[in-house]
Structure prediction request, 310 residues.
Amino acid sequence: MGIFDKGVKKTNRSFFERLSHAVIGRTEVDDDVMDAIEEALLATDMGVDTTMKIIDNLEDRVRRDKYVSMNELVDMLREEIADLLDVNDDQDDVPVPFDFSKKPYVIMVVGVNGVGKTTTIGKLASSLKAQGKKVVLGAADTFRAAAVDQLTIWSERAGVDIVKQPMGADPASVAFDTLKSAVAKEADVVLIDTAGRLHNRIDLMNELTKIRNVMRKIVPDAPHEVLLVLDGSTGQNAFQQAKEFSRATDITAMAITKLDGTAKGGVVVGVVDQFKVPVKFVGIGEGIDDLKVFSKKEFVGSLFSKDDIV
Prediction:
């Protein structure tokens, strides 16, 4: 079983249940089959624009190839989706997709409350520590007392250092102290937690810029990564969150959480296609090891398994 089979099995099952109704007993790909694929893709919350792009490309290929079997059609579908996921450098077979030549490598993590932001930080810290990296966490979400407490628990579980201040402290000050500590300790990686925020909280959105500017007083090119955490189970709402955060700051990567509990796994494809930002991690469970480095090849293979229609 691949590492993404668990995370996208509900999406896979939903997709092929819909598609099977259209293909059973058919020997060729016709309009009904293409309509069924379109309906199935939309049901995974891939989004209208991305779905239509895939359908248009598939229709062109079917038209050129004339006689296409169902297995060939699934291969084409896999190829089209893999192409949409191919943003920047291909990440397949990369243990952790970061450039550790920069030290400390600073990652600012953003996202709304409830998406699994702090949990993602904890799991990532644990993974990096297991690879021999020296990690420091910065509890810059001083908006909620529970956020600092939660990150502290994760720091203990992962066995990494944490820098924090009392609730209500200036988040930029926490970020400044965190980088100062990381430099002094010769840390490899810094993970900065930020307050969960919505686009209508302009003060919190502006705070991201302030945090970035203050960090650069210690590490001139920080942050090296701005990781947006999205809840895959929220479907189209994830698109809106990505849109608003892209306006507020320079998002460089995404982590999609809670894929194991949803049939909306197509959102991964949709957000990458629409925002041209790579997904670097996916969350497929509650365990500390259930944050996985995203592999385009393995994800597509799990999402659209030919075994389901053979």
